[in-house]
């Protein structure tokens, strides 16, 4: 399933994010805020169990999340999506996956993965602003499934139809949550109209 946010705040902030005149500081703020809004939508189906809670006035039945959540940012650009989401779910674990896209082959190259031997979380949120060819997201889901993760969701900002197709073909069980589905990839496999290079714009390295 692909979920494209229809939330007015998401649409407004995404437009500011695309703007080439948005400076890295503002860009980082927007990535953080959009990540929170999208994670809110992506986690609407998490399971709850009833628990008793005592307010100052009475005992009542409340709810507690059942599953341990893992936030899996794909380095570098996914890093900017972690902190805001983590504030919303402070019990989450953060596991970094280092991948970069080779500029000539467009294939993902893995350079960092410190996952423990056995899975420690039940729900994995893969965080990456850009789903372009889909190579990085597919490779990350492969790594997580080899690890033993069985419930994975992809949370991103922009997706190209090509990336959605690749991820859905390789991992049909992974729902995709994005702010917007863009038109296409250009000849360099950048998302059009897109926002440029999400890593460079966050870290001021462009
Ligand atoms: C970008 C982006 C994704 C990947 C998407 O990272 O953050 O990880 O490209 O492209 P794909 O869907 O075609 O794989 P990049 O490789 O530029 O690395 P960086 O974040 O370290 O700059
Ligand atoms: N990575 C980016 O940062 N931007 C794109 O448009 C495609 C891949």
Task: Describe this protein with a few key phrases.
206 residues, three-stranded parallel beta sheet, Rossmann fold, binds uracil, eight-stranded mixed beta sheet, binds 1-O-pyrophosphono-5-O-phosphono-alpha-D-ribofuranose, alpha/beta
Brief overview:
By secondary structure, the protein is of the alpha/beta class. It is built from six helices and 15 strands. The chain has a single domain (2-46, 64-203), classed as Rossmann fold (3-Layer(aba) Sandwich), CATH 3.40.50.
Account of the protein in words:
By secondary structure, the chain is of the alpha/beta class. The chain has a single domain, classed as Rossmann fold (3-Layer(aba) Sandwich), CATH 3.40.50. Helices cover 32% and strands 29% of the residues. It contains 6 helices and 15 strands. The strands form 4 sheets. Strands 1, 4, 5, 6, 7, 8, 10 and 12 form an 8-stranded mixed beta sheet that branches. Strands 9-11-13 form a 3-stranded parallel beta sheet. It has a two-stranded antiparallel ribbon with strand order 2-3. Helix 3 links the parallel strand 4 and strand 5. Helix 2 crosses helix 3. The longest helix is centred in the first third of the chain and has 19 residues. The protein is globular. The model has no long low-confidence stretch (mean pLDDT 97). The structure holds 1-O-pyrophosphono-5-O-phosphono-alpha-D-ribofuranose and uracil.
């Amino acid at each position: 399933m692909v979920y494209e946010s229809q939330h007015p705040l998401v649409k407004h902030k995404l437009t500011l994010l695309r703007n080439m005149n948005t400076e890295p500081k503002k860009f980082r703020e927007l990535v953080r805020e959009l990540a929170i809004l999208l994670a809110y939508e992506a986690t609407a189906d998490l399971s709850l169990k009833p628990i008793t809670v005592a307010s100052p006035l009475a005992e009542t039945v409340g709810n507690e999340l059942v599953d341990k959540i893992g936030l899996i940012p794909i380095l570098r650009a996914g890093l900017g999506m972690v902190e805001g989401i983590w504030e919303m779910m402070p019990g989450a674990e953060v596991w970094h996956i280092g991948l970069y896209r080779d500029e000539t082959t467009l294939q993902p190259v893995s350079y960092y993965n410190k996952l423990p031997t056995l899975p420690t979380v039940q729900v994995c949120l893969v965080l990456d602003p850009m789903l372009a060819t889909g190579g990085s997201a597919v490779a990350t889901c492969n790594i997580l499934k080899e690890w033993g993760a069985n419930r994975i969701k992809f949370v991103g900002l922009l997706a190209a139809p090509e990336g959605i197709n690749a991820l859905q073909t390789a991992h049909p069980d992974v729902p995709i949550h994005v702010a917007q589905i863009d038109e296409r990839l250009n000849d360099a496999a950048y998302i059009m109209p897109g926002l440029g290079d999400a890593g460079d714009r966050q870290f001021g390295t462009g």
